[in-house]
Amino acid sequence: MSAPVGLATATGSSYAALLGVGAYRPVRLVPNSELVEAIDSSDEWIQQRSGIKTRRFAGPDESVQMMSVAAAREALEHAGIEAGQVDAVIVATVSHMMQTPAIAPAIAHELGCGQPVAFDISAACAGFCHGVGLAADMVRGGSARHVLVIGVERLTDILDRTDRGTAFIFADGAGAVVVGPSETPGIGPVVWGSDGEQFDYIRQTEDWRDVMTSDSPVMPALTMQGSAVFRWASFAMAKVGLEAVERAGITVDDLDCFVPHQANMRITDAMARSMKLPATVRIARDVADQGNTSAASVPLALHRMVQEGDARSGDVALLIAFGAGLAYAAQVVVVP
Ligand code: COA
Question: What pTM was computed for the model?
């Protein structure tokens, strides 16, 4: 069918890349010893089952917005981009505790970005890699030039400190990247999807309407079928990671770094084995100190690798994130 008039089409940059990365880690460090009594556990059990030694819990002043702004400022500085040059802000989170409006416009305003397109996405632990996938397509499609992608969580607001399956896993923090135009390919094709048949694996205990009609309303907490999630993540996600590597036109031998969602050290190890990653690939292990920060975990882990020299500018890294939904997304990127 021919159009009655020729519509103009937006065209962007041939390639997109990560230009900078930033992070905010809450001040308060919480060792396993502080949590074990409420869940009848031990430091040894937690370390052996999850690899987690400490995590960070946000204080009253460390809000979703405050942590996001701090992480974003560092990412902008690393990228050498002014806030005014950002024309899109994507915030991945499940712990901005207001149904509407999204937190992204408030973050963009505080940063001084002017009036960029700004919205939140809800893809739980997979949210950051969804954001990077969207941002890369926006830059290449011409709907934005510089996109700030933030992954942020204050999961302690929705954590049941007495739940043995989640209380020691989840934590707080924020990570951010700037995605922008590039003369060479910097972000490979995203491999993403969802398995709604497993919608119940990780979820909030109750719908808000049920909470509010109850005689004694309690904040609905995160709940998880730990073993089922463990099996899914360890096996199905390795295939997704390998597909992202293949779609990027490389092999695992070309990878310098592996930055998986920091869910659990055993899941990371199982994925690395299953993908047959060469011993030379440096693997992010931020979960040991930071816990599982859901949407913030991949940028926090990448940031740490960059800071500690385990990921150098120009290195090729596989990012993969997965979680509630069940949702997942993976892409190969060049480290900024
Ligand atoms: N401390 C001590 N013991 C615990 C415990 C805790 N916090 N939670 C469970 N246990 C005990 C159980 O009582 C059970 O004891 P039993 O064998 O005597 O009956 C045993 O440990 C096994 O319980 P199970 O629930 O099967 O635990 P698990 O081995 O699956 O380990 C997780 C629990 C949460 C560590 C594990 O399922 C896991 O890592 N899942 C994935 C979590 C994750 O990464 N989620 C994020 C994805 S985004």
Answer: 0.96
